[in-house]
Fold these 3 entries.
Entry 1:
Amino acid sequence: MKNLYIVVSFIAISFTVSAQDKNTKVADKLFNRFEYNDAAKEYLKLVENGKSDPYVYKQLADSYYNVFNSTESVKWYAKATETSQDAETYYRYAQMLKANGKYEDANKQMKKFAAAAPNDMRAKAFNENPNYIPRLLDKTKLFNVNGSDISSDKSDFGAVLYDDKVYFASARNGARKTDGWTEEPFLDIYKADYNADGTVTNATKVSDLNSKWNDGPITISADGNTAYFASESFKEKIATPKDKKANAKFSQVFLFKATKNGDKWGDITSLPFNSKEFSTANPCLSRDGKTLYFSSNRPGSIGGNDVWKVAINTDGTYGEPQNLGNKVNTEGNESFPFIADDNKTLYFASAGKPGFGGLDVYQIDLSNGSEATNLGKPVNTEKDDFAFTFNSAKGAGFLSSNRNAKDDIFGVSPICGVDVQTIVTDAKTGAILSNASVSILDDKKNVIATEISNEKGEVNYRVECDKPYVIQVSKDGYEGNTFAVAKSKGPKVKVDAALQPIDVIVTETEIVLKPIYFEFNKSNITQEGAFELDKLVQVMKNNDKMVIMAKSHTDNRGADNYNLILSENRAKSTVQYIVSKGIDSSRVSGKGMGELEPKVDCGTQCTEEQHAQNRRSEFLIVK
């Protein structure tokens, strides 16, 4: 992503340049001025003329990395790493491999990175879960992502919806000066109409805020009268100290505040915590107007760019900027914060946390100390995905991504989902039960997924809104049970799954269970029957010498011979189920009794309930 970390402009000072050697002098100068495309062309000339070495390979790879040309960067990182490299090079190589979907190769480079920088949080996260990609791919889809008519043929990003207006940054203004890094016009802030049908039209420049430098992205207060936006320190006639290698002074990214007077923006002021020593960018104002979030590489950052926040006092002054810490930030780059209307859910982009490649969007609840979670696909891809924003009142938001080779804006809409939390306990003591099997079934009794309860007795599922579900729970020593999950729009449903300890009556001659009933004319074990048979299995596991015989009975409908065959099949199904639960086949046998031994002798006048009572299995203790 070309416009990600900083937007810079330069003022050339002289033609003298410090270079790695005379051969790379021109290429190094371009590289140090952030003109990566032109730098790559010069390094390639050296390769073609037989003047390449590991330094040139690495510079080529980094040039392509900085403009997110993953195919070329992988090619040259492969050459560079034929010799020993610094840890960050291995990390970048891994990121570019992931961007090409080469996860196994990426893991090999991550192992080298982790060995070279074992204390790096990114290395620790990888070592703890090196094969995290399948889990990310299995994540429940949270949002739909669609192309947006807001995008142009140039870079567009950072869209945010306020009321019926969409604000974003764009390089579409062909009349602007060309940026040496992006080879596109400088950025402007734009405003467009958000229509009732979700389309975005009538994009126009916000001329009051734009300058001759790069401008944007922007955030606006709830009342629409205050804006904070990113621009360049050149606007304040402030530049970095002369960079001798680049023969230039550079502009940092600054944050500015503007207030609205009628239909015009004015009173533009630089925020007091800007500095020519570092960049401060990508602002997001909380809806209550009390906190401004932003990204910066200021002192105190864990990595390159981190997410920070600063309090906005009632008198208009600002508190001391605070780093959001290692729940959010890594030694990599984190940027583009967006705080939701609930003032606790933060969305941000990270290239340092385990993801699909490049930048991924994460969310974190700042109120409870939880870990940040990857939003999964289709929000995230193998490319750069960033600047996720969401308007809860409209139920719509935006995402920026270079998944189509340039920075584009995409529309996002939430998929209505319900978080179902099941907590398994002992019904008699209330004790938490871990290691219980918890399945969730749809309304057709199809098992969607099965998980094991954790040390807190918890299993969490995310399901679709307005659909009924069933939670099915089992654990050795307890009666299995099902718990209905009613239709809901969420956001959360709690299921208290209290299991009864198995209390089976065992006499000298038989094991007394609730009747194992069968459906009419069928021999398969029903879910209710399985719960009862699990009790029998537990008794047999606790008494490893016990041998039983299962007697299966039918009702008196149908021919005698047919009923005998049917009962034999039911007996076999019963035995097979018991054996499938780990009981040796030598300890259990079955016999079909047909209609010979009815439990209720009702002749030809049986009710449906009496027929059901006669369709049963019984369990005799053989020894």
Entry 2:
Amino acid sequence: MDLIIIGLLGGLITGISPCILPVLPVIFLTGGAQSARFDKGDGASADDGPLPARRSRPYLVILGLVVSFTLVTLVGSLILGLLNLPQDIIRWVGIAVLVVIGVGLLIPRFEQILEKPFQWLPRREVQNRGSGFGVGLALGAVFVPCAGPVLAAIIVAGATGRIGADTVLLTASFAIGVAIPLLVFALAGRGLVERIRAFRKRERGLRIAAGVAMLALAVGLVFNVPQALQRLLPDYTAQLQRDLTDNEQAAEALGLGGLVNDENRDLDKCTNGADELESCGTAPSIKGIEKWLNTPGGEGIDLAELRGEVVLIDFWAYSCINCQRSIPHVVAWDEAYRDAGLQVIGIHSPEYAFEKDAANVEAGARDFGITYPVALDNNLSTWTNYRNRYWPAHYLIDASGTVRHISFGEGNYAATEKMIRELLEDADPGVSLPAATDVDDTTPDVGSTTPETFLGSSKDRNFAGPDAYGQGEDTFAFPADQAPDTFALDGGWNVQTQFVTPTGDEARVRLTYRASEVRIVAAGEGTITADVDGETSTIDVGGTPRSYAVLEPGDAREGVITLEVPAGVEVYSFTFG
């Protein structure tokens, strides 16, 4: 049940994210675009104008998209590998189909030629047949949503061959979740056509608009225009993705964190996005690389041979919108600090089959100005060895080969660069460093609010207590003075990797915040009493871990929130708007 809920919610969030904007015009218009008129034997002909599309067309469009997207995402790589076909052939076939159908919508007689092989079907099926399912199949092959942990879990399972019943269930649930909002747009297109059906000339205009939209999407995909546009849009669903997956149940259900082995078990000692250097064990090896780019003769790199240098490993994928906003920072660090002893290595871990094609990756790297070594991790071997689960993800390694900092997702660039400089000076005290880089941080959720606050031991970054914050049971007390944008505990608490829970009847959490909205991610059963700047309210917690409102949206403000948490309730994080 957890997998179904997580898959559906993850799909719904993706279905309303900026990533689906490029396909919306096509879905909206083709949901109601008309079929060409065929000779029915009663004197009617193509010259009499178009016929209404079947009422099922919007459903066929979305069904085709779901089927195609599911197969491409989950088993596309396996099938192409078995057939020894180029990894991006599915994408190009999808683009070609979009072009053919688009031309058919613009030129009815061309559509009739396309339909001729099917004229043995009953006439009533032919005359309203349209191209809904074919459109959906084409869109599914080129539809590339933003990477999130749910989709990452599916992609990793497919790429590594670990496809079981749970993975199929998760994929189906995710695809259905994506389909729901898209179906709304397709039905809206159908409704528009029905409202103006009396105006026959406008029906022809809708067909032309649908054809133009489809051809524009095809051309845009060839030149990666949708990705460039999406980079300019804030990902307003990023916080929803984090709320859904940043909890122990979701991590367990999705298998986030990869397989633990002797090389990577100490990575848990690093806190995501920490402001100070940590020590998280010897860096796992780079393994299973199909090809290296930007190295002499295409030779591979062994981390053991880089002792004495500071290494930054960047997991990325060239079509990942989140990565595209992060890469300018990595490129700037490489250019600024390469001569001072920094070695940047890009681990290209593909989300989709077409991203396994070396030529595609080379073109992507060239477009982003990447000149540092890039490893094609097509089987996600290094991804798995690092227990990674995000695009992008940065692992900072010191001159002795120890992982000192980990940052998942976008943002945290200033802190990462500060630590790069610290490690370079540690490796060579006499090094002369240039001024810090000046690249705009376009992370969508950047603002004048308290950063997302995790209470679990594996992700906390702003605990206000005087002592070290670690896993296990302990007794805490509020500090006399608490810094802004921090949290503190009071009473007996059991600190786990993802959440905290009281060891007695109740305990307290105090948060100093800057925000116009504050929410808490919690699970278990019980009632939390919240004191928000002197105003008291209650929060009833129950069921699946989810986000609860602590401070409703309003004007930006600063203040203090104190929560009395009963036994049986697990607190994961605070999020801010």
Entry 3:
Amino acid sequence: MKMQRAPVPWGAVLRGGPAVLPLLLSVLADRPSLGVPAALGALLAGINDRPGSRRGAVLRLGLPAVIGAIGLLLGACLGGLDGGRRSLVVLPLALGVLGLLAGALSSTGPVASACGTQLLVAAVIGAGMPLPEPGRQRAVLFLVGAGWLLVLRLVLPSPVRSRTGAGAPYVLDGEREAVAAVYTAVADLLRAAGSDRAPGRRAALSAALDHAQDTLSGPRLRRHASSAAERRLHARYAAAFPLAEAATALAWAGQPLPARIAEGPDRLARAVLTGTRCGALPAPARSGSGLRALDEALLRAAADFDSREGRRLRTGEASGRPSLLRRAFGPAGRAYGIRVALCCGTSTALAQVLRHDHWYWLPATAVFLVKPDLGPLASRVLCRAVGTVAGAAFFAVLLAPFAGPAVAVGAVAVCGALVPVASRHFAAQTAVVTVLVLSLVALTGEPSAGAGRVVESLLACGLVLVIGHVRMPGHRVATVRSALDTANSAAFRYLRHVLHDPRDGERRGDLRRDAYRSLAAARNAIELSAAELPPVARRTAGSAEVAQALELLIDTTTACAVHLDGRPAGLSRSYADRLTARLSALDAAQAGVFGPKRAGAQVAAV
């Protein structure tokens, strides 16, 4: 319910206005209906236009746009079915089946969620919005609008370039910032060691590593496999792994560290941003296994920073992680897919009963509301209702009296620029999108009927709220259980490797990243479930204790890995006792949630 705090994404704001160029050209050519699909493509791409690298934007904006064009084409085909009573069965059933597939895939990650949402929204609009152009032409125009915004994202200068210096390669803006953030997070964790801020700083380090990996492993923008600058940046990212491991072990020990210990990672962060060498680092401190590991990691990082060769980034995930299809059609994917199918099919049938033509608003609203990564269900339903009322009232009072192509295009341009800023709060984003869509509706010649749109949006809110709390294979329960299962398996893979093959540092790093990343996903699912209304929240009670026990186990495993680097004889008694205590705590926490039969199996195996 609170406004998110973040810097203003000026790049996305400046791209939002020029993104209406296809719409403006169609209005000037006296064919406004041609510009509506293009403006919808630009709008949906603008919602996904978030801070990050150019190469990440290709996947984040491009793939959902292609899926959305397919959805628009499918919707146009479904809209060509015979009307009347037949559409009350065929169309809701067809969109429900499409919602089942799209919902299952949406549960696997943020890009997949954007793809599933665009597929359903475009299909509903394609089936319900009356446009004279055939389906294939609408799909092409949709791609033109989204592609134009993507071109602006790739071509326009980035504010990051001015901060990283003239020598920074043009395509390495977000990548440099992401890698530098990893070294800054390492320094922050070292400064927080021995205080109650350490757990939060460790989680921030894990998030920074995840973001940097996603940023560097996106699709390439060049014809050749890599450049020297990219290889050097990959080497600097890889050099952060041992530093992160050592910093985690030092934070686990719980002892405050001298302030100068954090100076080395800080200097490395500045070197990444400026693309220069790191220079002299602070004198080493080698008292204990953690400080010794930190010093050795700093020395290796300095060598990598001074090297002009670099290396390629290893992007393979640790073995044992479920594939995309297994996650999509697992318990969480199936449960979410069922809810999306019910929302999509039921809202389509209800909308067609209420109004035979222009019925698409209600199901399109329901599809947006049921999106899995927009926060707790009750709060986003309330935000959607407030935002829709505010946006419709603004349009009716300030824009509708001056209806005309020029006013509509201007409103779309302003709203397109405001979408990246309004995304900080779901109600604000809803209000901006409502004004934008009502302006597009006015360009098609369809009566806006703002009051009717508000009523349909409120009906969609009530429908999604009811279906979201229906007792069935619960979406939240399945999501939390599935996320905890994944995190649990990743933690034990990491532990077994550390105990049985501690010398394989590269494989150990992959498993550590997989364990922390899976734990972060489980925590997100638990926090989202805990913020739901009591009928849903109580179903996952106790899950936070399991996640906390897993976090302590992974941290202890990391400390053991650092300890074993210098001890061929194996774990000392104190480390073995701490590890045993963590395993017992995890066993007890899991017994309270999953039952005693489930809890002790993996602990006994270790």
